[in-house]
Amino acid sequence: MLKQRVITAIILFTLFLAALFGLPDAGWQALVLVVVWQGSVEWARLSGLAGRAATAYWLMTLALMAGMLWLDYGATPERQATLHLVWYMLAVLLWVFVVPAWLIAGWRPQNAWFMGVIGWVVLLPTGLAMLDLRAFNPWVLLFAMTLVMMADISAYFAGKRFGKNKLAPAISPGKTWEGVIGAMIGVTVYVIVVAWASGIYKQYPVFPALIVAGWWWVALAVIGDLFESAVKRQAGVKDSGALLPGHGGLLDRIDALTSTLPFAAIAIILQRLE
To answer: Does residue 111 carry a pLDDT above 70?
Structure first.
């Protein structure tokens, strides 16, 4: 299983790099639409939507995302930033306030369309963030995503080697506090290496600002991971889909990105508006 996961991950990462640096803007927008569409297909299943209701859901999701792309055309940078910030602030409310309370309370909402609306706040800001971060600088998007990857890899091996204390056994029995600590150490090392290699430490303080931001990134990634695990547990499934061999569905791969990328996009937009 691990070998299959590694092979799939290498193929996906190679294709992602080719798309990130090789696709024209229109091609990247089309790719983001596909990501949001596939995510909505899997979210519909997790929400309990089936048949025509599921089809209606992913069609509406696709229309919302395409509509936002259409509104971006011809809009001033300030108006575009304002439109995107509305969705990003909804994401902030979800990940900082709603989801932690949701997980602590063990809430299991039964209304499928309510879960569908939650899915829009999960998926649409993620798609917009992929657009905004790449437009700002592809390397910034790559760093934001690889930071999550580093946290995930570090947590896996630290948890496997040292894991004893369960993080949230009722939601995801495999996750441990030792894994979280491992993720924080891995992210710290990664931030230092990237800051040194890129020379960014000459412009921004590496200690402690960027490292603390990295730890905050780990916390957000864990919340996103746990939330999808809780939704899958409620749906009675192990994976969100079977799209990726050894990994499950698309949502199984981007769960931590949905809770992190919007925050990076907010930082970029606010910097632009200053």
So the answer is: yes
Phi first, then psi, for residue 108 (nearest 5°) are: -130, 75
Sign of CA dihedral 24, 25, 30, 35: positive
The domain in which residue 58 lies consists of 2-273
Distance CA(236)–CA(4), nearest Å, equals 24
Question: Which positions ≥6 away from 249 have C-beta within 8 Å?
Answer: 38, 42, 239, 240, 241, 242, 243
Among 75, 134, 133, residue whose Cα is nearest residue 263: 133
Task: Give the predicted TM-score (pTM) of the model.
Answer: 0.94
Q: Which residues contact 38 (CB under 8 A, 6 or more apart)?
A: 243, 249, 250
Between 15-24, 57-66, 211-220, the lowest mean confidence (pLDDT) is in: 211-220
Residues ≥6 apart with Cβ < 8 Å to 214: 147, 184, 187, 188, 190, 191
Q: Is 120 left (phi over 0), alpha (psi -120 to 50) or beta?
A: alpha
For the chain, the straight-line distance linking the first and the last C-alpha, in angstroms and rounded, comes to 48
**Residue 73 main-chain phi, psi, to 5 deg:** -70, 125
Report the pLDDT averaged over residues 117-128: 98
Q: Is 58 exposed, middle or buried (0-12, 13-18, 19+ CB in 10 A)?
A: buried
Give the integer Cα–Cα distance in Å for 270 and 92: 14
What is the pLDDT confidence band of residue 246, given thresholds at 50, 70 and 90?
low
From CA 182, how far away is CA 163, in angstroms rounded?
Answer: 10
